[in-house]
Amino acid sequence: MHPGIILRILGVLLMVYSTTMLPPVVIAMIYKDGGQMQFLAAFAITLLSGLVAWLPVHNVKDDLRVRDGFVVVVLFWLVLGLYGAIPLVLGESPHMPITDAIFESISGLTTTGATVLTNIDSLPKSVLYYRQQLQWLGGMGIIVLAVAILPMLGIGGMQLYRAETPGPIKDNKLTPRIAETAKALWLIYVSLTVVCALAYWACGMTPFDAIAHSFSTVAIGGFSTHDASIGYFDSASIELVTSFFMFFAGINFGLHFFAWRHRSVLHYFSDPEFRFYLGVLAGISVFTFIGLMAFNQYDDAFTTFRHALFQTVSIATTTGYATADFANWPPVIATALIMGSFIGACAGSTGGGVKAIRVHLIFKQGLREMRRLIHPNAVMIIKLNKKAVPDRVVEAVWGFFGVYLMSFCFLFIATAATGMDFVTAFSAVAACLNNLGPGLQDVASNYGSIPDTAKWILCFSMLLGRLEIFTLLVLFTPMFWRH
Predict the structure, then answer these.
(1) For the chain, is the Cβ count within 10 Å smaller at the N or the C terminus?
(2) Are 94 and 110 in contact (CB under 8 A)?
(3) What is the pTM of this model?
(4) 66 and 474 Cβ atoms separated by less than 8 Å
(5) Residue of 459, 410, 282 whose CA lies nearest to 356
C-alpha cells in the first residue's frame, strides 16, 4: 500500500472534479435563479480540498498496484458523494439536510436515480442541471475519465480501470494503451449523448430538457427535470427515443467501439450477451403487455403496448424513468419488472444489476449440472460464441452471484429493522443495489419519507451495486490489509 500515491491521485481527481461545479454557475446566470453562489462556494471548497491533499505528496513517484487501485476507486466514490452534496446543503432552494443531500448526490453519481426531492418542477434550473450532470459523470465513471489523464502525470491507470469496469472479464481492452481505451469510451459516450439530445430536441423537448434528459438517459440514471418523469411530455415519439437510447446505452460499449471502428453492426447479433439481453427485454415486454391486457389496465392495445415496452426497457436496464406508475400495476407485473432489474444491462455498459452476461453464464452452468446428472462421466464445456469459457470465470460468476444475494439479504434485513414494511424495504434495497431508483409502496415516487438510518443503508447499497460488490467488500477483509 502506498498512502502517498493514493493521496496524490485523490487530490488530482478532486481538483478535476471541482471544475464540474462551474457549468451550473453558468446555468444559474442564464436563468437568473440565484444559485450561482452555492456552486461557486462548492467549487472553491472542492478545489481547495484537492489542493491540500495533493501539495504535500505531489513529488511522490511510485507504481500504482492493484490494491492501491481498489482503495482509490472506493475512496474517490465516497469523497465524490460527500463533495457532490455540498451545493445541495448550501442552497436555499432546496435547502437539504446533510443526510438527504448525500443520499441525492450518491444516487446521482451511482446512476441510481432514487430521489428524496418533491416538487422537482419548481426547483431552480441550476439545481436541475446539476442533478442530471451528476448522473452523466457517474454513468461512464469519472475514474475512467481520470485514467486518460493519469499517464500524463506519470501514473499508470490499468489498476483503476480493472476496479471500475463492470463485468466478469476485465482485462479486455479496446486499444493497446489503457489511456486510449478510456478516451475511446468517452468519445463514444459523449457522441451518444449529443445524438440523444438532438433527437429529444427534434421530438419537441426544450433545449434545456433535451440536454438534461440526454445526460440521464445515456447514463441509464433516471433523474428527470419533472416530477412526472418522461410521462410529463405525453409524447409517443419522445418515449420511443428514450426507449432506444436506454436500450442502446445498456449494451457493452466495446460493441459500440467495434461498430464505430469497423463501420459494421453485424457483430451485435453475433455477441451472445447482446442476444441474451435482447431476449430478456423482449420476454419481459411480452409478459408485461399480456398481463396489462388481462387486467384491463388501459383502454386500448396501443396504449398498453406503449407503456409495457417503455417501462420494461426502463426498469430492466435499471434506468428508472416512468410514463406510468408501475407500482400501481397488478403486483405480479410490478414484481416481474423489479426482478428484471436484477439481471440488468450488459457488462461494460452504464447499467446496473448482476449483468446479462453473468446471468447467461449461470443459466448455462445450471444446464450443464443437469446434464451431468444424466451423464456423470461426460466432459462438458461451457461455450460462448463457440469459445470455451474457463472454469475460473464460471466460478467467479457464481461467487459474485452468491455474494450479491447474501448482500441483498443482509441489507434487506437491516433496512426492515429501521421500521419499513416488507414490500418497501425489499423494493428499496433491490432498487438501490441494482442502481434502479424507483421502488414500490413508500418509495414508489421518492425516498424522502423513509428514516435517515435507512437512507444511509441504501447509500451503502448504491455504492455496493455501482462498484460491483467485490470492489467495495474486498476492503473489509483482513487479507487485503496484510503486507
Answers:
(1) C
(2) no
(3) 0.91
(4) no
(5) 282
Question: What CA–CA distance (Å, rounded) separates 147 from 170?
Answer: 15
Residue 383: enclosing H or E segment and its boundaries?
A: strand 383-384
Q: What are the Cα distances from residue 283, in Å, to 159, 272, 322, 386?
A: 38, 16, 20, 25
Contacts of 452 (CB under 8 A, 6+ apart): 99
Query: Is residue 463 within 8 Å of residue 81, measured between CB atoms?
Result: yes
Amino acid of residue 25: V
Q: Which of 437, 30, 414 is nearest to 230 (CA)?
A: 437
H helices of 150-177, in order, are: 158-164
Grid cell 459516450 is found at: 189
Q: Are 458 and 408 in contact (CB under 8 A)?
A: no
pLDDT per residue over 118-144, tens digit each? 999 999 999 999 999 999 999 877 556
Dihedrals φ, ψ of 472, to 5°? -90, -45
Whose CA is closest to 155, among 5, 17, 3, 47? Answer: 5
Which cell numbers in the block locate residue 119? 416538487
C-alpha cell at position 377? 462421466
Sign of the four-CA dihedral 410, 415, 418, 420: negative
Q: Are 316 and 341 in contact (CB under 8 A)?
A: yes
**Residue 460 has which C-alpha cell?**
451503502
Residue 234 DSSP SS3: coil
Looking at residue 162, what is its pLDDT?
55
Residue with cell 441509464: 220
CB 148 within 8 A of CB 240: no
Structural contact between residues 472 and 465, judged by C-beta atoms closer than 8 angstroms: no
Helices (H) and strands (E) in the chain, counts: 23, 2
The C-alpha cell that represents 440 in the structure block: 414500490
C-alpha cell at 483: 503486507
At residue 388, the pLDDT reads 87
The grid cell for 103 is 443520499
Rounded CA separation 18/116 (Å): 24
In contact, 223 and 132? CB cutoff 8 Å: yes
pLDDT computed for residue 149 by the predictor: 42
Buried b (16+ CB within 10 A) or exposed e, 366-381: eeeeeeeeeeeeeeee
Phi first, then psi, for residue 383 (nearest 5°) are -125, 145
In this prediction, residues 6-23 reach a mean pLDDT of: 92
| Coil/strand/helix, residue 388 | strand
Give 231's contacts (C-beta < 8 A, 6+ positions apart). 322, 323, 324
Mean pLDDT, residues 395-420: 94
